[in-house]
Amino acid sequence: MQQALWLVGKVTPLGILDVALVTLIIYGFLALIRGTQADQLVRGVLILLLATGLLGSLLNLTILNWLVQNSLPAVLVTLPVVFQPELRRVLEQLGRTGNILAGPRLRVAAHHGVMVAEEVAKTCQLLVDRGFGALVVIERLTGLEEFVQSATRLDALVSADLLNQIFYKGSPLHDGAALIRGDRIVAARCLLPLSDNQDLAPEVGTRHRAAVGITEATDAVCVVVSEETGAISICEKGRMTRVADAAHVAGFLLPIIGGGTATDRVVHARDEGAGGIVAKGAA
């Protein structure tokens, strides 16, 4: 009883705040890695540490206890290396919460959103008619300048004619992605990271894996036209959605990039009927 009272007496508002912050950080990290490969890795490490720690304490194994205690600093140093993608995702999400700094950029995106969505939709129709493939990336809050540095810079006004020429089979710019920032085509031949998502169908090609990969790492939106089937897909947040046809592309993009509402997206998705397939593995 006295020990309990002694412990209660040691509790202070700062101590409660300290414990709450540490708990919140741990919970946020676990929620972030949930469903990823890192989730299973963390479980394995925790099970190993708990099992060896309990075994060493119960049986009083001196060497095993020494090994566990001295391994903890190495584990803490290794965690940032192993969980680099997850930590980067957390920092990017924190950076996107800066609404004051992001406000002007959001207004620019909304101002040009209608024009960009319509030109991309026209491009999709032209490419489908001609049997060409394409990968168009629309930058949002997360900067994609690192993918522009190794690409071919253009800095031209977004237009269906120019995008159609970029993805023409004989064009030297057709291999890779075209990057749109605001109302400008910033670059072509952008090389994007490929997704290692195991849920994607085996027949999904490089373009679609690149679209999923860039939207997993950033808040960009990708429009993909399949060269083999002529199918049009839109990727956002690592999720691929099949669009019924080019006529529905603008209505789907507007609520995402600005210039439209969520109601517009619901209406267009409803109009797609059976043609709209919402699934990670849509190709």
CATH superfamily of the largest domain: DNA integrity scanning protein, DisA, N-terminal domain
SSE order, one letter for each helix or strand: HHHHHHEHEHEEHEEEHHE
CATH class of the largest domain: Alpha Beta
Number of strands: 8
User: Domains counted in the coordinates: how many?
Assistant: 2
Major sheet: 8 strands, mixed
Outline, from the CA principal axes? elongated
Q: What class, by secondary structure content?
A: alpha+beta
Name given to the CATH architecture of the largest domain: 3-Layer(aba) Sandwich
Task: Assign a percent range to the helix content.
Answer: 55-70%
Tell me the β content: 5-15%
Distance between the termini: 65 Å
Uncertain spans, ≥5 residues at pLDDT below 50? Answer: 261-283
In short:
The chain is α+β, with helices and mostly antiparallel strands and 283 residues long. It contains eleven helices and eight strands.
Structure, explained:
It is a single chain. This protein is α+β, with helices and mostly antiparallel strands and 283 residues long. It has two domains: 2-93, no CATH class; 104-278, DNA integrity scanning protein, DisA, N-terminal domain (YojJ-like (1, 3-Layer(aba) Sandwich), CATH 3.40.1700. It is 57% helix and 14% strand. It contains eleven helices and eight strands. It has helices spanning 2-10, 13-33, 37-59, 62-82, 84-96, 99-130, 145-148, 160-166, 206-217, 249-257, 262-272; strands at 134-138, 152-157, 177-181, 184-190, 221-225, 232-236, 239-243, 277-278. The chain has an eight-stranded mixed β-sheet, with helices on both faces.
